[in-house]
Amino acid sequence: MSEDLDPAVRMALTVNERDLDELAGKLARWLSDKVGAEATTSNLSKPSSGGMSSTTILFDASWSGAEQGSFVVRMAPEDSSFPVFESYDLAMQYQVMAGVGAASAVAVPPVRWLELDESVFGSPFLVMEQVRGRAPTDNPPYVFFGWLFDATPAERALIADATVEVIAAVHAIDDVAQRFPLLDGPDTALRRHFQAQRDWYKWALLDHDVEVPLIERAFDWLEAHWPADPSPEVLNWGDARPGNILFDGFVPTAVLDWEMATFAPRELDLGWTIFIHRFFQDLATRFDQPGLPDFMRRDAVVAKYEALTGHSVRDLDFYIVYAALRHAIVMARIKCRMIHFGEDTVPDDLDDYVMHRLSLEALLDGTYEWD
After folding, report:
1. Which CATH superfamily is domain 147-365 in?
2. CA 111 to CA 91: how far, in whole Å?
3. Rounded mean pLDDT, 224-240
């Protein structure tokens, strides 16, 4: 990361610009066919906090004179947008969201329709009901300012506890192989997941002649420290963190972003949610800002999870390093994307493709300092 970059300023990133007026007409015609009545759409907009894994459109709709509501469209990214992920499986997301909603009290937005015909919008999409709420922001990170930053320690504890409660509730869902067959496969779930990361690294970076030594070192470290007795496999949310939850005050209203859902040991989600906050907190520390050292603390997350589930968390160092590796591929791919669109330049040191290289190096060396 450039030393003169201010992480407290929203990073401007190139996104695919779809014409909302054109989309409104196509959406109305498609919806009319789905509901069997003439439908109208209005108030199309794009959320300012939208990421790069998909295109998100908010809209209102009405039909049959009385039926109406507010909805969200999530579209798979087009190849021209230099996507972060190789594939964007909307059928899997739809199945997982519907299944989690049916099998638990997790506040998943109700899904309404799945459209795999690319001729409608140019890419597949799903439609879910819109849920009101606010989420901690990633860009700029919530550790610098915003409603979570301004909250009291007790209020932030409510957010942290709610996040762990969501994770525990997802992990408690039973019969996952029958409920979510698209996530099943050969070998152990952890091995499948690990191989998928290697394949993604090849597609995202190696195929673009970007070989990052630090990422290669992390893969080797994980092989050398592979858990001898991994926890039983459960459904994992995948992108488990407060930034993917909408809150009314400090109470969750919607649990979002299921594109990384997978079968894995419980610690996969726990390592991810602990590391992603540390990624933001380490950014704040690097820029001489206080951040939120009281939030999503490793020991507090583990204690809360164990109290909720009765499960003894194991091999957490492995899963935190694994989370740091996975996020390293994300950040390196984003940097490649920015270079592709002329927003960044190729670094002299290939390890600088990883924004959190200092944290990952310390984790691999066993010198990372936890507060």
Report:
1. Aminoglycoside phosphotransferase (APH), C-terminal lobe (3.90.1200.10)
2. 11
3. 97
